[in-house]
Each structure stands twice: as C-alpha cells, then as structure tokens.
Specification:
single chain, 14 helices, 42% helix, 4-stranded antiparallel β-sheet, 13 strands, Aspartate Aminotransferase, domain 1
C-alpha cells in the first residue's frame, strides 16, 4: 500500500514538472515559440543553425562573423586574463570601459556623458534591452516597436506584463511612416523602442523620422530606448543617434555593444547610457539579472572603442563589399534583393521564384542550394506574417570565400 501511494506521488510530481507553471508559456507565446502542443520551440536562429550543422549547408541564418575582429582587441583580452582580471568587476562595469564609452559618444556624436553616473555595462545589448523594458514598464504599459523586430523585444515585453504595439516597415525602404508612428504612440506608451540601423532590413532611419520620435516622446511622456548595435557598420548614409538630436538626450536610453563592431559577438559586452535617473533604474534591475559579466573582456572592448577612425571605416567598407558579393548571387538566383544601408543582413524576396511561404522554403533551402537563411516572417507578429511571407534574411558577415561559395550555389538554385 505504501509503495503504491509513493508511486502515485512520484507520478503526480512528474506530471507537474512536465507542465510547470510560471511565465515561460506566455513569454514563449509572445515570441512566437509556443507550439500547438504547448511545448516551447527553439528560436528560428537556433533551428536554422542546427539545420546547417546537420546538413553541412553554409550558415547564413545567424548573424555571427566567422573571423576575429581587430588584433588589438583580441590581444587586450589575452593580456587582461594573464594579468589576473578574472574576478567580479564593479557592478556598473570597469572604469576604463565606462570612460571609453563616454569618450566614444563624445567623439562620434558630440554627446557628453558622466561615466560614473550615466553609463552601465551589460551582458550584451540583449540584456540592456531586457533590463530597460523590465525597469521602465509596468503591467498594462505599452512598448512601441517597428516590425520586423529582434525577437527578444516581444518576449521581454510580455515578461514585464506590458503590451507590444507594432508599426510595420515595408520594402524597399523599411522606414516607419511618421503618421503610423504617431497613431501607435499614445498616453499608454511607456517606451518607444527605436532600432536604427535596423535588423533585419539594414535601414538607417532619416533624421526627420527620429525627430518625430522625440516629439512623440515629449507629447506622450514616453521614454525612448534605442538599439544601435550596428552603429558603425553603415554603408550608405549616416547614423544619427536620437540622443544627439535637440531634446533627445533627456528622454533617451542609448544601447549598443562591442559584439557587432569588433566581431566579438560571443563576448556579450554591451552598454546603456543616458540620463542618470534612467540609468539608475535600469541598474536596479540589471544587477539581479547577470549582476556582472566578462571581467577581462571589458577592458579589451575599451581598447576597441579608442581605436583610430580608420579601423571603424575599414570594418564598414569590408562589410559593404561582402553585402554586394552575396546580393549579386541572390539576384542571379532570381530573388528581388533589398540591399541594406547598414548591418549584417540582406533581405531578399523569394516571390519571383514562385515562393509563397519563406518559412517552408527556408527548411528546404539546404537541400536545394546548400545554404541556410531565416524567414523574415519569424521576426514579425502573427497578425502580420502574411505581409512578409516571401521574404528571407541572409547574413553576409562571413569570409569572402564562404560568401563566394554561397553566391555560386544560390545562382544554381532550381526549385523542383
């Protein structure tokens, strides 16, 4: 009798663990990752990377380089490890990195920062975004973003029990319509989340659109949070941070990282800067997420931020060449290509190939061409997926020889 009772308790416990409560389910649903059977799915990036690994296809799905960044940055990390800088750094980040971030903002954009009060180092830009949304929103608040969007925006907004409100950006410009922005921002809006240069399209928002965002923030008492991780990888036009515009700084938290600029995406060293009261609020949340991170890598990113202008210019020029190399191959294959003005990715429309569902096409592409990409429909809300159904995103932050192979294989693409 006792054994049977124990067995029933164990079975009940296993059933409870198999379907635990908590916030995971609504967070996964917000990111479009809850399957019909109530099981969480992998992100599209993890799924496509696994598919590339399983098939041997060229992975142009996930945005990570296959080459190291500047030798000075890598060597600085080695030196910091050898010098014993391997324990907890200060909670807000090591002084030399915070100082380098302040110098960087002044040097490139004319933004003056107090490195001790207006800069916070984070575990990549993703943590900075999460901590900002969690810190500044309450249940029922609204976060306005453009879509397609980086998938963490929706997940963290839901985790905060806030509501995501989206404004579509459309080909070929992928820039938000100012009137649609104005309609989306209301007195319920707590955060306007600006991603420029934009992922996935690579669009760089014009100054007049950014000025409209500033005006809307003042009109509706909202905070602007920016995702500027591609700030130095601009090929056409110029990146203008909102914090550098008249009236922009006082309502803006600016977020960036060293991962994209210095090809160190695995280091996860990011930062958020802005008015001290806002940075204090984000710090209050961030300290209970990672607490601190990447002690010997922080001084290495500081070295990177202080490199000569030519290093930043050469990085953008190299990516421009890579963009064109892959874009040419996609055009030969029959895609309609929307060449980006910045970033790591090119958006290509597969509709001319007869493709109506890019998600299904993405899963077939490794067998058809030995290449992996990501369907843009995975980066939009469910209600708007049909509008982006035939679009694919391909990463060109790879070695030239890899891109040449991918371009050649795509050029030979023949749909069954």
């Amino acid at each position: 009798m006792e054994a049977a009772s124990d067995s029933r308790r164990r079975l009940a416990a296993m059933e409870s663990i198999a379907s635990p409560g908590g916030s995971w389910r609504r967070t996964a649903r917000a990111a479009g990752l809850l399957a019909p059977d109530d099981e969480p799915r992998l992100t599209i990036f993890a799924e496509m990377s696994a598919l590339a690994s399983a098939t041997g296809a060229i992975n142009l799905g996930q945005g990570f380089p296959d080459e190291d960044g500047p030798a000075q940055v890598v060597e600085a990390a080695r030196r910091a490890i050898a010098d014993g800088r391997n324990q907890y750094p200060p909670g807000i980040g090591v002084p030399e990195l915070r100082e380098a971030i302040a110098e960087h903002q002044a040097r490139f954009y004319g933004i003056a920062l107090d490195p001790d009060r207006e800069v916070l180092v984070t575990a990549g830009a993703t943590e900075a975004i999460a901590a900002s949304i969690l810190a500044l929103t309450d249940e029922g608040d609204e976060v306005v973003v453009v879509e397609p969007y980086y998938d963490s925006y929706a997940a963290v907004t839901e985790l905060a029990r806030a509501r995501l409100r989206t404004v579509p950006v459309r080909a070929p410009a992928f820039v938000p319509d100012p009137d649609e922005l104005a309609e989306a921002v209301t007195d319920r809006t707590r955060i306007i989340l600006v991603n420029s240069p934009h992922n996935p399209s690579g669009a760089v928002w014009p100054v007049e659109v950014l000025e409209r965002v500033v005006a809307l923030a003042y009109e509706h008492d909202a905070i602007i949070v920016t995702d500027e991780v591609y700030e130095h990888l601009v090929f056409d036009g110029r990146h203008a941070p909102i914090a550098s515009l008249p009236g922009g700084f006082d309502r803006t938290l600016s977020i960036s990282s060293g991962g994209k600029t210095f090809s160190t995406t695995g280091w996860k060293v990011g930062w958020v800067s802005g008015p001290a009261p806002l940075v204090r609020a984000v710090t209050a949340v961030k300290q209970f997420l990672t607490f601190v991170n990447a002690a010997p890598l922080q001084p290495a990113i500081a070295v990177g931020l202080r490199l000569p202008d030519a290093v930043f210019e050469e990085a953008a020029a190299a990516l421009r060449r890579k963009r064109d190399l892959l874009s040419d191959g996609l055009e030969v294959a029959g895609f309609t290509v929307h060449r980006p003005a910045a970033g790591y990715f090119v958006v290509a429309d597969a509709a001319p190939l007869g493709v109506e569902d890019a998600a299904e096409f993405a899963r077939r592409l490794p067998a058809l061409a030995g290449v992996v990409g990501v369907p843009v429909s995975a980066l939009v809300s469910e209600a708007r997926r049909d509008e982006y159904a035939s679009l694919m995103r391909f990463a060109f932050c790879k070695r030239d020889d890899v891109l040449e192979r991918a371009a050649a294989q795509l050029a030979d693409l023949r749909l069954a």
